[in-house]
TrEMBL record:
Gene3D superfamilies per the UniProt record, alphabetical: 3.40.50.880
BP-aspect Gene Ontology terms: 'de novo' IMP biosynthetic process
Record NCBIfam families: FGAM_synth_I, PRK03619.1
One GO MF term attached to the UniProt entry: phosphoribosylformylglycinamidine synthase activity
Organism, as annotated: Coprothermobacter proteolyticus (strain ATCC 35245 / DSM 5265 / OCM 4 / BT)
GO cellular component: cytoplasm
Protein name: Phosphoribosylformylglycinamidine synthase subunit PurQ
Primary localisation category: cytoplasm
Length: 225
């Protein structure tokens, strides 16, 4: 049994989705981690869920860095622990500098909430090992600031290092190179705008999110990298 710590920031709203996906569909131990928590040692994986942490004030994700739990998460990430940031979690990870780039306002300046097709650009990561290169999966998005930006040099580095994990099949929000998910250079931290935790049951329109959660579990069960 692996323990997934789900960071609850003021304004998180996908923490319960993560909790139920991990507990009821992945059959693992899911635990909420209050944002004042300072020791995250006991968790095998840390998740930063979607939402509007700190009201999206300043910039989405920007204020989360002042929370003790996020501070502790950075230390765990640096030790090589798996960290996944979904939507607002992705925004937090870029604001922290754990992931390159930034998430800007969607190209159409609107909140976008729909299912999208994404293609697997790297199947050799702890988050995508149950998928095949080039495979298309269906996941929901729900954001107003999902327009991923990196400069040209960084984009070339990301591609060369296999850090681009998922790409939208069609342009959704204006993201550079249609990027939907990236990892850090070490490969233990991922940020993604689509929500795998909201796609764990065919009744909800897709269960493709289980590929992502299941890949993480496989990685933990085989003992890491
Ligand atoms: N679902 C979410 O996490 C929303 C993310 C973010 N606050 C946005 O609207 O861009």
């Amino acid at each position: 049994m692996k323990t997934f710590g789900i960071i609850v920031l003021p304004g998180s709203n996908c923490d319960s989705d993560c909790f139920y996906a991990v507990r009821d569909y992945l059959n693992q131990d899911a635990q909420y981690v209050w944002h004042e928590e300072r020791n995250l040692d006991k968790y095998d994986v840390l998740m930063i869920p979607g939402g509007f942490s700190y009201g999206d004030y300043l910039r989405p994700g920007a204020l989360a860095r002042f929370s003790p739990a996020v501070d502790a998460l950075v230390k765990e990430a640096e030790k090589g622990k798996l960290v996944v940031g979904i939507c607002n979690g992705f925004q937090v990870l870029t604001e922290l500098g754990l992931l390159p780039g930034a998430l800007m306002r969607n190209k159409n300046l609107k909140f976008i909430c729909k299912y999208v097709d994404v293609q697997v650009e790297n199947a050799h990561t702890p988050f995508t090992s149950r998928l095949k290169m080039g495979q298309t999966i269906k996941l929901p998005v729900a954001h107003k600031d999902g327009n991923y930006y990196v400069d040209e040099d960084t984009l070339q580095q990301l591609k060369k290092n296999g850090q681009v994990v998922l790409r939208y099949s069609e342009d959704v929000n204006g993201s550079v190179d249609r990027i939907a998910a990236v990892t850090n250079r070490q490969g233990n931290v991922v940020g993604m705008m689509p929500h795998p935790e909201r796609a764990c049951d065919p009744l909800l329109g897709s269960s493709d999110g289980m590929y992502i959660l299941g890949s993480m579990l496989d990685h933990l069960l085989k003992g890491g990298f």
